[in-house]
Write a structure and sequence with these properties.
With 261 residues, the chain is an alpha+beta fold. 18% of the residues lie in helices and 30% in strands. It contains five helices and twelve strands. A twelve-stranded antiparallel beta barrel has the order 1-2-3-4-5-6-7-8-9-10-11-12. Strand 2 and strand 3 form a beta hairpin.
């Protein structure tokens, strides 16, 4: 009986390890579903209260009426909700007006994610970088801190002449997962899906979707809605990186009011 259980355990894979990790011995163990077992700095707020058991993260960009009226680009704000539509986090972009006006979607910024009590739990830093399939160097990159001050991962754009491709990396900049987008992100009156894959891109484990919210919304506002579909037991640090990736996709592909049609 013990031998049979051991065989079944091997056939299912080792629980708690990140899907697609090249070597289970490389500290890529996913965090336990028990928030009490999360390893964070003592006394520092962390995203572990909600992320461990969640398999759908909904991100709703708030409509900026001032930007609509004046036609200017204001700092982005997002509500982050669970599958029941309950807000668990709130994200605010910090950037200067000059960058928003003249650098537009390429602007450098910091996104501060706070819980419902106002404590910052995740920080996403975006430097000013290039965004062109014809420029293979100095492409887009994000740095994710969770909790703030502790780097847990990166999202790095990879050069590809046809498809949007990105890599989720750990704190040592080792590749963990791939993200592959569609050849066109216009949506054509439908959702736009970025598939989250293993390193070899043979297995899809989740997706980041930009939901089409209707013709009127897309034409007259730049408020977007996203859904992040992930395995519930995925490492919370990787979930935090995927939230950062979602923000990056919003800036890169959907920031303009006509995006997503």
């Amino acid at each position: 009986m013990a031998s049979k259980d051991a065989h079944n355990q091997r056939s299912r894979g080792q629980p708690g390890f990140l899907p697609g990790a090249p070597d289970p011995n490389q500290n890529l163990r996913a965090s336990s579903s028990d928030p009490g077992n999360q390893v964070w700095q003592p006394g520092v707020p962390s995203p572990s209260n909600f992320l461990p058991t969640i398999n759908l993260i909904i991100i709703h960009q708030q409509v900026e009426l001032l930007g609509m009226i004046l036609g200017t680009e204001t700092s982005n704000k997002y509500e982050i909700k669970n599958s029941l539509g309950r807000r668990i986090y709130f994200a605010v972009e910090e950037s200067i007006c000059f960058n928003r006006t003249f650098c537009s979607t390429l602007r450098s910024c910091t996104l501060r994610i706070t819980d419902n009590s106002g404590r910052e739990v995740i920080t996403v830093n975006r430097p000013l970088r290039c965004n062109s399939c014809w420029c293979p160097c100095y492409l887009q990159e994000l740095e994710i801190e969770a909790p703030p001050g502790t780097i847990v991962g990166y999202v790095a754009q990879k050069w590809d002449p046809f498809l949007p491709k990105f890599t989720i990396q750990n704190a040592n900049k080792e590749d963990i997962l791939r993200i592959v987008g569609p050849c066109t992100t216009c949506g054509c009156f439908g959702d736009v899906d970025f598939e989250v894959k293993t390193i070899n891109e043979k297995l899809t484990i989740g997706k980041i979707s930009k939901y089409w919210s209707g013709f009127v919304n897309n034409v007259f506002t730049n408020a977007d809605n996203f859904g992040i579909h992930v395995p519930a037991d995925l490492d919370v640090r990787v979930k935090a990186a995927m939230i950062g990736a979602c923000f990056l996709f919003d800036f890169m592909f959907f920031e303009h009011s006509l995006a997503g049609l």
